[in-house]
Structures are given as structure tokens and as C-alpha cells.
Design brief:
There is one protein chain. By secondary structure, the protein is an all-alpha fold. Helices cover 68% and strands 0% of the residues. Helix 1 (2-18) crosses helix 5 (90-112). The two termini are 32 Å apart. Residues 171-187 have low confidence and may be disordered. This is DUF937 domain-containing protein.
Length: 187
């Protein structure tokens, strides 16, 4: 997924990064990689912190990327990276982060929710972010229930949070107990 996301960032970085005189040409690729890492780490951190509803709502297309607190957090983290790692001017770095991250996130959401696009899927993204802890879960069915407003995210939040925390720590593997949780979720 990281490579696909990097490619998506590269597709949208022409104006914000490549044609930006504030970003030295020799740093273009590193800045695009930092944007990709900011998105991945930001989504993973939100899941680890228990914001399953926010991540699912965003990636599932129920929440707009414009003014979205999750997208704003990712943009701010990317801004910090631009300032600290690349020593960019604060005004130029702010413009770059506030244009690139929401654009890429909007594209990611659109591609994730486009049934004709096989490059991104909610299952694939969450599987990557949680180290596979979400595998075996019918996310399509869950998203339908969430859209209908009759779904409690409590148990799912525990799975995603635990998986994201393990993935952050560098451990890949399931958190366990998914079969029991699925049995409870779908009767």
C-alpha cells in the first residue's frame, strides 16, 4: 500500500512540490515520501488512539476531507516534518502541506470508494495500517451498517486500535479473538 500511496502523492505533487521553488529539486522525492509517511502514520495513529469512527468515516466517504480534523492533523504533522527535516520557510511549508495533503486524501477517498478502482480498498488500507488485524472482517457490510446508523464500533475499535499499535511497534500479527468478535458482530 505504501508504494501505491506514494504514487498517488507523486500524481498530485507536481505543483505543490516539483514546481515549487521553495523545495530544492534534490529534495523533491524525499518530500513526497515524507508526505506519504505522514498520511500513513497519521491514519495509523488515529486508529491506535481509538478514532475508528473518524478513520472509517473519512476513508468510507462519509466525512469530507475539507476541514476534517483528521486531515488537518495529518497536514500539521507533515508541516512539522517540512519545517524540521527540510528547513523550509514556514509560510511556504504551510502552503505546501495545506494544499498537498487534503488533495491526496480526497483522491485516496475517491479511489477507495470507486468500485472500478482495484488499486485502493478499505480492506487493504486498514489491513496495512493494522498489521492484518482487520483481515477477515466484512468491512463492506460494516460500512453499510454505519451508513444506516445502527452499528456500535466498540469491539471493532479495539481490534483496529490494537492492530495499529502493534504495527507502530513493528510487530505484525493479529490481535487475536477476531472470530469471537465477528460472531458477536454478525450474530
Amino acid at each position: 500500500m505504501f508504494e501505491q500511496l506514494l504514487q498517488l502523492v507523486q500524481e498530485h505533487a507536481q505543483t505543490a512540490v516539483v514546481n515549487n521553488p521553495a523545495v530544492p529539486n534534490e529534495q523533491n522525492q524525499a518530500v513526497m515520501q515524507a508526505a506519504t509517511e505522514s498520511i500513513t502514520n497519521g491514519l495509523q495513529q488515529e486508529l491506535a488512539n481509538g478514532n475508528t469512527a473518524g478513520v472509517l468515516g473519512l476513508l468510507g466517504g462519509q466525512h469530507s476531507t475539507e476541514g476534517n480534523p483528521l486531515v488537518n492533523n495529518i497536514s500539521n504533522n507533515f508541516l512539522d516534518t517540512l519545517l524540521q527535516k527540510f528547513n523550509l520557510d514556514k509560510e511556504k511549508a504551510t502552503q505546501l502541506a495545506s494544499s498537498l495533503i487534503p488533495t491526496v486524501m480526497g483522491s485516496l477517498v475517491n479511489k477507495t470508494n470507486d468500485p472500478s478502482n482495484n488499486g485502493f480498498s478499505l480492506d487493504g488500507i486498514l489491513g496495512h495500517l493494522t498489521g492484518g488485524a482487520s483481515s477477515g472482517i466484512n468491512l463492506g457490510g460494516i460500512m453499510d451498517k454505519i451508513k444506516g446508523g445502527n452499528f456500535d464500533l466498540g469491539e471493532l475499535k479495539d481490534i483496529f486500535s490494537g492492530g495499529a499499535k502493534q504495527q507502530q511497534e513493528g510487530n505484525s500479527g493479529n490481535t487475536g479473538g477476531i472470530g469471537d468478535v465477528l460472531k458477536n458482530l454478525f450474530g
